[in-house]
Specification:
about 325 residues, alpha/beta, 6-stranded parallel beta sheet, 3-stranded antiparallel beta sheet, 9 strands
């Protein structure tokens, strides 16, 4: 089968990738032959593969028409979805309905799991997102918070992290307590500055519209008209998790994020994030979203690293079961 696709209405560089890197991903993923000249792509090969390639190109061209430069990772993800017969999910992902605006630059989910996460945050007062590093748990939550602040649906943003020692000792760090815990809060500031002008972040922080604080500072507060995020929640204990959740006031939303494979507590079973999955499972208005390695949107090696650790953990558990 031979099929030609015209993309003359878009800047082909944004579709083809630097030095045609995106087209090479397609070529390496299928047996069909793909050639591009100017604004026309020709596909020659097996009927089914030609249709799959055309489906991927159609979705990627749609991203370019909406102002996105297609990345190599976008093409890899689209290929995997099409090959798994999940083209309908891919189409829904790119329908444009989940784009967050009002930020320094628009933010949108890049995987089906991320879209489910964004949809959950739009429709629930409490969302718990669990998944490995690189899946956008914190980034998308902060984007939602900033968008809500810009739309005036909340009056402030409160970003919270437990100050748990991840192999380092706070006691040996220089400075007072605030200076010691600053490195733990830095990722939240980084996410904020990716959404807003740094001077604006500084101003809103100074007047209290944005707070970035350790979890211990939440005790005794009631937060009305706020978007509250608890990040790295796997390092909160069950009493801390209860304390945090009961801070929720009127017209407020809460997002809890964490990775239960990276618990720094002395006893894994102490983690509030692990246990809260059972405690809150049947409450309306609370949604749990589980992300996995297919939702990793960092460097491709991050996905491979996550998969490798998952295989290692599974093998270790299998050996332990055999020894029982």
């Amino acid at each position: 089968m031979k099929r030609k696709i015209s993309v003359e209405d878009i800047d082909s560089v944004h579709l083809y990738g630097r030095r045609d890197s995106n087209l090479r991903v397609l070529q390496d993923s299928f047996g069909a032959r793909i050639t591009a000249r100017g604004g026309e792509i020709t596909i020659v090969g097996d009927d089914a593969e030609v249709e799959q390639i055309a489906a991927v190109l159609d979705q990627m061209a749609g991203l370019v028409r909406r102002g996105r430069t297609v990345r190599r990772e976008d093409v890899i993800y689209a290929v995997r979805m099409v090959q798994e017969g999940r083209i309908d999910e891919l189409v829904r992902l790119y329908d444009g309905g989940a784009r967050l605006t009002g930020l320094k630059r628009p933010v949108e989910p890049k995987t089906v799991g991320q879209k489910k996460y964004v949809d959950a945050m739009e429709h629930n007062d409490i969302v718990v997102s669990i998944g490995p590093a690189g899946t956008g748990k914190t980034y998308l939550a902060v984007a939602m918070a900033v968008a809500a602040l810009r739309l005036k649906s909340v009056e402030r943003i409160v970003l919270v992290r437990p100050a748990v020692e991840a192999g380092e000792s706070l006691g040996y760090l220089p400075g007072d307590y605030q200076e010691k815990i600053a490195p733990y809060l830095r990722p939240l500031y980084d996410a904020l500055r990716d959404m807003m002008d740094p001077e604006r972040v500084k101003k809103l922080t100074e007047i209290g519209t944005i707070e970035v604080i350790p979890l211990a500072y939440m005790r005794g507060r009631t937060l009305n008209d706020a978007f509250v995020i608890l990040d790295e929640a796997q390092n909160s204990t069950m009493p801390q998790m209860k304390m945090f959740l009961t801070r929720l006031g009127f017209n407020s939303r809460t997002v809890i994020t964490g990775d239960i494979t990276q618990i720094d507590l002395a006893n894994r079973e102490m983690s509030g994030l692990v246990r809260v999955q059972d405690v809150l499972a049947d409450i309306d208005g609370i949604e749990f979203v589980y992300l996995n390695e297919s939702d990793v949107v960092r460097h491709r090696l991050v996905r491979e690293i996550v998969k490798a650790f998952e295989r290692y953990a599974s093998a270790k558990e299998a050996v332990a079961r055999e020894g029982e």
